[in-house]
What we know:
The complex is a heterotrimer. Chain A has helices spanning 15-24, 26-47, 65-68, 73-105, 109-120, 127-138, 143-152, 162-186, 190-198, 203-232, 235-240, 248-259, 262-285; strands at 50-52, 57-59. Chain A is mostly helical. In chain A, helix 4 (73-105) crosses helix 8, helix 8 packs across helix 10 and helix 12 (248-259) runs antiparallel to helix 13. By secondary structure, chain B is α/β, with parallel strands linked by helices. Chain B folds into 2 domains: 18-157 and 281-352, 3-Layer(aba) Sandwich (D-Maltodextrin-Binding Protein, domain 2), CATH 3.40.190.10; 160-280 and 355-372, D-Maltodextrin-Binding Protein, domain 2. In chain B, 35% of the residues lie in helices and 17% in strands. Chain B is built from 15 helices and 11 strands. In chain B, helix 2 (73-80) links the parallel strand 1 and strand 2. Helix content of chain C is 80%, strand content 0%. Chain C contains 11 helices and no strands. In chain C, helix 3 packs parallel to helix 6 (130-154), helix 7 (158-166) runs antiparallel to helix 8 (171-200) and helix 8 (171-200) runs antiparallel to helix 11. The longest helix of chain C is centred in the C-terminal third of the chain and has 42 residues, at 230-271. The model of chain C has no long low-confidence stretch (mean pLDDT 85). The interface between A and B is large, with 54 and 50 residues.
Amino acid sequence: MLAPTAPSGLRADSGHAAGLRHLLVVPTAVWTLAFFVLPLGLVTVFSFGTENLITFNVSFGWTASNYAAFGSALYLSTLLRSVALSLGTTAACAFLGFPLAFFISSQRPRVQRLLLAGVIVPFWTSFLVRTYSWVNLLQIDGPADRVAHGLTGHHLQILYSPRSIAVGMVYSYLPLMVLPIYVALERISPDLYAAAADLGARPWRQFRRVVFPLARPGLIAGVIIVGVPAMGEYVIPEILGGGKTLMVGNIIVGQYLDVGDYPFGSALAVSLMVILMIMLFALRRVQPAVEAS
Amino acid sequence: MVRPGDCPRNGQARLPSRRQVLRRGAALALTIPASAAMLEACGNSSSSSGSPTASLAGTAVMTNYPSWMGAHVVQDFQKLHPGSVIKQITNASSSISGTVQQLKTGNFDFGLADASATQQAVDVGLIEPPDWSKVPNIKYVAESFRAGFPHGMPTDYGKIGIGYRPDIVGEKITSWHDVWRLAPKFSGKIVFIDLDRDCMGSALRYLGYSGNSTVPSQLAACKNALIAIKPHLQAFLSVNYGQGLQDGSTVIAMDYDYDVALNQQKQPKIEWVFPTEGMVAYIEGWIALKSSKVLPLVEAFMNFALEPKQYADFVNTTGTAYVEPVATRFIAKSISASPILRPGKAIGNVEFEHFLGSATALWTQVWNEVKAA
Amino acid sequence: MSLRRHPVAGALALVVVGFLWIPILAVAVNSINQSSLMVSWGGATVHWYSLALHDPNVRTGLTTTIEIALGSTLVSLVIAVSGALWWRRAPARARAVYDAMVYARIILPEVVFATALFFLFLKARFPLGILAIIVGHSVWNSAYAAVIIQARLVGLDPAIEEAAADLGATPWRAFRRVTFAALLPAIIAGGLLTFTFSFDDVVTSYFLGGNSATPLPLVLFGMIRFRITPEINAIGVMVMLFTVTLMGVAVAASTLVGSVGRGRRDALAEFYGQ
Lengths: 293, 373, 274
């Protein structure tokens, strides 16, 4: 997806076309500079400052003390916990989402639209409504428990535990994995499958040699838009996990909103950002270059 | 955003209880560039409900909890003073600093806040008490509450105690010590409140310290006590705390008085405890921003809301423990006769929460450590 | 056996879709549940819907949220599509910077971003409200859309567009019939995602809404604070139905665009000489 090398086969632009092409980046550039780079700069500057916690006045002082605190056992262990949550969620979403995306892409366009709607429409109720619905479903003596009890005689002690967090996370992030993979798979012409079958490839081989490589950019896109936000996730663990776990998101939001310690919260955010940027750029290197179809 | 994450998509504001929101919520902020012009809504705030003073035209913007207002209070006031508008904006921030920054913009004239947030706002120079001569109905508020909330108009308070099912527990609970003692026996059926001030405050009382303590060693002991009981907790809840008491899925709950009272109505077997070590309580009320251009309107509205009938409307709508004894005759029996909400002498030892100052960061640190354990 | 009729994937797919709908069904059932605790069934009632419909906060919250979601989707797609098109012919260094900015917008915790943007808007005296929220949302939404669109773009052979140009199509026509048509699924997917993100957003909306814009999530936030009642569920169902209807209208309009999609298949077919 994000290939570091220029695509092969593109002819050089004529001067006129090149000029127009540069215009294409203007919206991104303007928006990013004005509304992102500036705030990010402010955050970075905050991270080197200190603050009066009563008045919330930040004094800019160029101290690195905010970063030093990040090395404490509390923050490192919390970071690990968030990483684990993110990895687990991403893996589960990939395993469940890939077959779904594949299946959708293999259907007729009308059925595709219907299935896609089936995937995204649930998320047009509000997040809070959905998440508390899970609390209701998973609680002791709730519907899930009654079904399990009826079937097995045992009670389903799932709410307010890591398992209920897992259910909530996978539930909330699944569309983010399904959509990019679907988009990547959708462009596979049916003729391609037919051609591969004609050449004698069995289904698994078709999958490995044809489907998976073409789906890969979509899968990587899905991994990014699931994995990164899942790192910062703390609301679902709070609601479905019974508030018994501490995630990186809790700490950062806590510093920003509860204590109002912007310098410290900013240092945490910047540190997190550096770590994730390094990881994403590493992922980027692993990308295949653009392939001709 | 679908992604719940920190604010879904990296961070949805985490769900605070309304207590949390208020606690942090109204810390009013830093100096707003004070602007001189007051509306001609002149200050004839004759507090009596009688004469409509046409000079109170204008809009007062209030940051408030949804529905934390008498069902008819605003309409009645607006009818009485044509041209006046009380606009309520939902306070969706769980944070002092968030609200502080919001208030910096000068968007609000008054709002609901608890004692801690209020004190911070005072320290920062954002608010000052209204001119009480313009709010004579303040005389109806009992003295103890005025003492707990001196910078504004108290509206309600809530105690954090224990709700439990004696029929399941098999014995009488009378103290926080009982809760900690019985925890292993009822492991997984105990619920605490997911708010540092109320939860840690209660744990501090359990240990015999002040619920507003800022002493590091006491806070460390508090942390250890909470970590010790944590394995037996079902959850730290931020809403519907005592609901599980109804069907017994929760056996013991650290809970607010109004919540236990409500659940008790549905399940009479639930009982409330005033722990012998004492309790912490929040107290909240309305505070007025110094920079407001419609202070006379705000004062008039405050005065109106304190009239016994109007105040009773508020109490009946919210079901909260209340601060105005004379309103009792207008208040529903389920509230006014409840030994939970109006315990009289049985209230025992209650300590109102107040501003922790710079120790807030220390409390947050301890709370993080409890949550991380 | 044709790969497309793979029964295992199909079965798993339907189970997963079912899983996605389970809480929604619970929401729907609870929205008419007389028992306000929703632990068990208390009989049917429309009381909660009546409450929700009569609540002015809910109505304005919904319209505000839809405005914001549509506005931010539009802006985000413009940014993401134009940027991606530039990106595919950009030199490697420039691409690295662009990618870094995309990643950074996804990585930066929203509370941090929203607070910083809030401070900047105050300083610049930019008015807070719906417009400010749209600006804020589109900063990170455009990054998500960019990731999806770029993934699609990677697999696009630029030779096709050039071939179309060789065959006499004007650059604009080549773009529209080949590239844009090929990108369309990604654009739609990106749009759906950004719409959904904006729809549910709380933090940015809170900071940038000032005292005039209270989108639905904030309203619900405030309501849940006190107690969770079936009214919340009624609101959830209403909101979902309303939005689906809105999208249905959009889909009807998109059948017009569908003809462009067919054009793409034609172009491909031509290219493969079928």
